[in-house]
Amino acid sequence: MLCCIFCLFSESPKDQSPSEKQREVSKLPSNPEEVEDLRRDSATNPLIAFTFEELKTITGNFRQDRVLGGGGFGSVYKGFITEDLREGLQPIQVAVKVHDGDNSYQGHREWLAEVIFLGQLSHPNLVKLIGYCCEDDHRVLIYEYMARGSVENNLFSKVLLPLPWSIRMKIAFGAAKGLAFLHEAKKPVIYRDFKTSNILLDLDYNAKLSDFGLAKDGPEGDKSHVSTRIMGTYGYAAPEYIMTGHLTPRSDVYSFGVVLLELLTGRKSLDKSRPAREQNLTDWALPLLKEKKKLLNIIDPRLSGDYPIKGVHKAAMLAYHCLNRNPKARPLMRDIVDSLEPLQVPEDDVSTGKVITVISGLPKEELKRKEDPHCN
Ligand SMILES: Nc1ncnc2c1ncn2[C@@H]1O[C@H](COP(=O)(O)OP(=O)(O)O)[C@@H](O)[C@H]1O
Ligand SMILES: [Mg+2]
């Protein structure tokens, strides 16, 4: 079913005529009944269809001080579902993603992709979709609230404490398990937009993949790849995908390598503020990953040397293999999960002990991390 839906809405070539585009737009669902019709055979997870009025209540009328983040197609607000909103609902904190842009065809299609994929898949390392709103031109998604926000917000924040090594490895492990689950699903899924802003963290730094707007069904039968319009994020996308549009699960493995590099170095995949040869993280760091002595010079200085050297070498070699230009030479996500497992630090040290000890000695401003992890 999932496949059929994505055949129906297969990505349109750039030279598509306006009338063809119009025909495809009219195939997109325009109310909750049509959404549920599309979901009928694949709807493993029950989703709540919210009205727009209910979302106003949940988000305090989309108050600006509730904005958690924004991106391609609108803003994400923090919200609260209270018992009196509707009978039978449990009180819960949520994140509400409003596709408010220009109500574009692409925006609506990405909204639908999330409804379909997250309405079907469930795993501890994927963010949980609670419901959606499909009313008039409103296209909204309601997710479980992830208290610490994105890995991007945490890793590159100038205000928050640097993430310790143990937590970086926990994040890599969690995110790898999420991707492995997608690749090994009965109908494999390619995530296609793996990057730090799409990995969210709960209070205990469990990583969950969110933002399934660009996810695609994997190749079927004896096909080696799916052909797509090239979409994703420059700096994370695999070189062969950018060049040919051929998408395989190994494209996600490459992006995973980039994120692992970001966790190791504390640098962004693309950073225009750096000297020219350091702007593209992969180009700059790749040759250094195999050189044991030089490697330590590129590890995030904010870690102040507080990491196990052997663990750093192993993680660096893993990133190196993920970033192989030959997609077939890259490891499978399952191999990556297995390699990251021995690099994990026992849970006790990760969650409370070490981190809280550091937090308690902080200036007031940095204490904000604990109270409101979204403040960065
Ligand atoms: N469930 C959530 N809990 C907390 N913050 C979230 C949640 N979903 C999204 N965000 C925040 O909003 C940002 C953008 O969300 P995302 O789903 O990636 O939207 P976009 O399609 O615009 O990239 C994220 O990087 C994160 O900071
Ligand atoms: Mg995103």
Automatic annotation (TrEMBL):
GO cellular component: plasma membrane
GO biological process: defense response
Residue ranges of every copy of the Protein kinase domain listed in the record: 62-344
Annotated ATP binding sites: 97
Region called Disordered, residue ranges: 12-38
Keywords per UniProt: ATP-binding, Cell membrane, Hypersensitive response elicitation, Kinase, Membrane, Nucleotide-binding, Phosphoprotein, Plant defense, Serine/threonine-protein kinase, Transferase
Top-tier EC class: transferase
Localization in the cell: Cell membrane
InterPro entries cross-referenced by the UniProt entry: Kinase-like_dom_sf (IPR011009), Plant_Ser_Thr_Prot_Kinase (IPR050823), Prot_kinase_dom (IPR000719), Protein_kinase_ATP_BS (IPR017441), Ser-Thr/Tyr_kinase_cat_dom (IPR001245), Ser/Thr_kinase_AS (IPR008271)
Pfam families hit by this protein: PK_Tyr_Ser-Thr (PF07714)
Compositional bias of kind Basic and acidic residues: 12-26
A GO molecular function held by the record: ATP binding
PROSITE patterns (UniProt xref): PROTEIN_KINASE_ATP, PROTEIN_KINASE_DOM, PROTEIN_KINASE_ST
Enzyme Commission (EC) number: 2.7.11.1
Record's function text: Required for pathogen-associated molecular pattern (PAMP, e.g. chitin and flg22)-triggered immunity (PTI) involving reactive oxygen species (ROS) accumulation and triggering plant defense, including defense-related gene expression (e.g. PR1 and LOX). Ensures specific recognition of the EPD1 effector of Verticillium dahliae, resulting in a hypersensitive response known as effector-triggered immunity (ETI), characterized by the activation of programmed cell death to limit infection by the pathogen.
UniProt similarity note: Belongs to the protein kinase superfamily.
Protein name: non-specific serine/threonine protein kinase
Biological classification of the source: Eukaryota, Viridiplantae, Streptophyta, Embryophyta, Tracheophyta
